[in-house]
Design a protein that fits this description.
single chain; 305 residues; alpha/beta; 2 domains; 9 strands
């Protein structure tokens, strides 16, 4: 029996591949007092963390190919500008000095105040900008807490053909992972107006957000199929492959694409992970009641002929 989980489809397309569970929890911040004689050092520690976050984002921006749409780089620029804004760079310093508390706690207090302001906004797009505050703040917090080496990272990991399953992804994550060859992603949080969702649409990465407890139900390296338009994903079975191919094919037909394109789904990604060594593959590729076999998503066509 296959399990189907639903969320919000934010980037159209169908992706087939093995899951990569990204276990990156939120930073846990505790408050502790800083002796008056060490306040200056604590301020310096905070400023160094902000600068390190800035260097990380600049490095990511430099990895974006020159022929990429300027809109993609602008999301990284937004986070860089936030690091320069006094609400994140100066206010926490004032809190460190006035409350004589650690930098992590001062940053958390300011984060909570900013998020509260965004949550009271009527405009849905502006309200979603609290996610950007969280992305920038969490990056600084992980540096302050020295969690970068402990949190799971994707650098050097074989992500080609994988579907990322995470609690949330930043725009920087989405850009880097796209260049690492992912075919889609699923997040437990987020919404259709988030910058990460917008980037997914720009990069044509099938994506679903708001899938609660997705990592609880899915295993790492589990074969999965996601539909970024319908907003569902499930462990991959032969019938799911047929459904995915037909949906992509029907979409091509509705768009009046040429028959050469309609015969093969252009938005089914991750096909390299779709073919399993099953003996009755020809029958599985033939939908019930169809006059001809749909285009196969296998990269080993001899198995499906």
């Amino acid at each position: 029996m296959s399990l189907a989980l639903t969320g919000i489809g934010v980037s159209r397309g169908i992706a087939i591949g093995k899951t990569y569970l990204l276990q990156r929890g939120l930073p846990e911040v505790a408050e502790y007092a800083i002796p008056k004689a060490q306040i200056k050092d604590e301020v310096t520690r905070f400023l160094q963390a902000v600068d390190a976050a800035r260097q990380q984002l600049k490095a990511i921006r430099n990895e974006i190919p020159a022929d990429t749409s300027p809109d993609i780089a602008s999301f990284i620029d937004t986070h860089l500008l936030m690091l320069k804004d006094s609400t994140l760079s100066d206010v926490p310093i004032s809190l460190i000095r006035s409350r004589k508390c650690n930098a992590e706690w001062a940053l958390k207090l300011q984060r909570d105040a900013l998020v509260n302001v965004f949550e009271q906004m009527d405009d849905p797009y502006l309200r979603t900008r609290k996610d950007d505050v969280d992305h920038v703040v969490n990056r600084i917090q992980r540096i302050l807490l020295k969690q970068e080496g402990h949190s799971q990272d994707t650098d050097g990991m074989p992500l080609k053909g994988r579907i990322i399953v995470a609690d949330d992804l930043t725009p920087a994550d989405a850009i880097l992972m796209q260049h690492q060859g992912i075919v889609g992603f699923v997040t437990e949080h987020g919404g259709p107006l988030s910058h990460t969702a917008i980037i997914a649409r720009n990069l044509r990465i099938p994506a679903i957000v708001g899938v609660r407890h997705a990592r609880r139900y899915l295993n790492d390296a589990e074969e999965l199929i996601i539909d970024g338009r319908q907003g569902w994903h499930r462990p991959m079975t032969p019938s799911c492959i047929i459904t995915a191919v037909h949906r992509a094919r029907n979409a091509a037909t509705r768009l009046n694409l040429p028959s050469s394109r309609a015969s093969r789904p252009s938005r089914v990604t991750g096909a390299s992970s779709a073919c399993r060594p099953i003996s009755n593959c020809p029958r599985m590729c033939m939908p019930r009641g169809a006059s001809q076999r749909p285009a196969s998503v296998c990269t080993a066509p001899n198995r499906c002929t």
